[in-house]
Design goal:
Layout: H1 2-24, E1 27-33, H2 39-54, E2 59-64, H3 71-83, E3 88-92, E4 98-100, H4 102-109, E5 112-115, E6 120-122, H5 135-155, H6 160-168, E7 172-174, H7 175-180, E8 186-187, H8 191-198, E9 202-205, E10 208-211, E11 218-221, H9 226-234, H10 237-256, H11 262-280, H12 285-303, H13 309-324, H14 337-363, H15 369-372, E12 377-385, E13 388-393, E14 396-401, E15 411-418, E16 421-426
Parallel strand pairs: 1-2, 1-11, 2-3, 3-5, 4-6, 5-8, 14-16
Antiparallel strand pairs: 6-7, 9-10, 12-13, 12-15, 13-14, 15-16
Helix pairs in contact: 2-3, 3-4, 5-6, 10-11, 10-12, 10-14, 12-13, 12-14, 13-14
């Protein structure tokens, strides 16, 4: 009897432990996106979805606040969502957030779409990056995106009319309108409210209908790793443009004042960081060439007497290149206009000032060495003639000679320096 008691107790303990273990592992992963959609963000979301699938989470919540971004990066994110075996909940939050442009497609692709009060979604009309596409090409791009948006809406049983108008007409709607017309499934004030309202809802994951079991689920945030944080910062076009300007200014200062070292090192580091950012953000390479040409023109001003024409050409190239650099990127991936004009003015003034100082240094009459002593006035200490003598110049006594005899005490002008001897003549001559 006693043995049976201990056996039953052991079984109950095992069952209770298994129950507690199962309760502890019921997790919902949470990732926050509050930046333009770029390859960096796409990689981070892909990693997060993979982690949720590996850990067999109940769901993953993508808290979204984005002004839009790149189409190819958006396609990568949508593919990851559609292929996920774990339900993906896209939650536009906090209040004041938006899922604009690229964010609209991500919201439409989600297994469950939610928005916080005071948010909006839409305005997904494409922006051509190079500025060279004609009307027919742009129509093809728009039609392609319309088909994609409608297909996503159809898969998730959402409003196809809005999906089309968001792309064709840049239509944008509030959270209440989105709920009324069937773009989203629910409105939640925070994450806990979202879990409570999402619990028990049915979603389609692949071909499988699944009931969300989110009651008392533990929310585990997926933090950005150091690499993602750094690359995320370097995809800020304002910072990238500033680093590019600072890098060029530093290298230019080093070239115009060799041996300064610090400006050259700083310029090289800033230029490398800028190039990392430019490798992620789409750029117009003609604009980059114009900016580099501006630096070359500023440098040539030191070598060629152009009376400021090369400097003027450099300023013009710098301005044009800055305007062209990010082409017609989405607004979130362009340099703000006030910052662009300010930096062009500031760095043009700095480079022009460095050029002016360098020119004064290059063209200044030598004050030391072989050339520096030519033309100086000295005094004869010992009679100077063709055979030699001594003169006192700039606090020093020199051996000197002249074509005529010059008595002691006379003032002389230095004509030439021949080794350690000076050729002189009377001052009055």
């Amino acid at each position: 009897m006693k043995k049976c008691f201990w056996l039953v107790s052991l079984i109950l303990v095992c069952l209770w432990t298994s129950f507690l273990k199962g309760a502890e592992t019921k997790k919902v992963y949470h990732v926050k996106i509050d930046a333009p959609i770029t390859p960096v963000i796409a990689n981070f979301i892909s990693y997060s979805i993979d982690l949720a699938n590996q850990q067999k989470a109940e769901a993953i919540i993508i808290e979204l606040d984005t002004p839009g971004g790149l189409v190819e990066s958006t396609r990568d994110i949508v593919k990851d969502i559609l292929q996920s075996r774990v339900p993906v909940i896209v939650y536009v939050s906090p209040s004041g957030a938006r899922a604009a442009s690229a964010g609209t497609f991500i919201l439409l692709a989600s297994h469950l779409a939610a928005m916080a009060p005071g948010t909006h979604v839409g305005a997904a009309h494409p922006v051509e990056l190079t500025g060279k596409a004609d009307k027919e090409v742009m129509n093809k791009v728009v039609n392609d995106l319309v088909a994609w948006a409608k297909n996503l809406a159809q898969m998730r049983n959402r409003n196809e009319t809005f999906a089309e108008e968001a792309v064709r007409k840049s239509k944008s709607i509030t959270e209440n309108e989105a709920l009324q017309i069937g773009v989203i499934e629910l409105i939640a004030k925070d994450l806990n409210d979202l879990l409570n309202k999402a619990h028990g809802r049915q979603v389609l994951v692949g071909e499988e209908k699944r009931i969300l079991n989110l009651k008392n689920a533990q929310i585990e945030k997926i933090p950005e790793d150091l690499k993602t944080k750094i690359l995320k910062i370097l995809t800020n076009p304002n910072l990238v443009y500033f680093l590019l300007m600072l890098g060029l200014a530093g290298l230019y200062f080093e070239l115009s004042h060799p041996g300064s070292i610090f400006p050259g090192v700083l310029g090289a580091v800033c230029l490398i960081l800028a190039l990392v950012g430019l490798s992620i953000i789409p750029v117009n390479y003609a604009g980059l060439v114009f900016i580099l040409l501006a630096g070359v023109l500023f440098f040539l001003e030191l070598q060629v007497t152009s009376h400021g024409l090369l400097t003027l050409a450099g300023v013009i190239c710098l301005f044009l290149g800055s305007l062209m650099l990010f082409g017609k990127n989405p607004p979130a991936l362009k340099v703000s206009t006030p910052l662009l004009y300010s930096l062009v003015l500031i760095f043009s003034s700095i480079l022009g000032g460095i050029t002016y100082i360098a020119l004064k240094t290059v063209r200044k009459k030598p004050v030391s060495g072989r050339e520096g002593i030519i033309g100086k006035i000295g005094k004869v200490l010992e009679e100077v003639g063709p055979q030699g003598g001594k003169v006192f110049v700039e606090g020093e006594i020199w051996q000197a000679y002249a074509e005529e005899t010059i008595p002691k005490g006379e003032k002389v002008v230095i004509l030439e320096k021949d080794g350690l001897r000076l050729k002189v003549k009377r001052k009055d001559q």
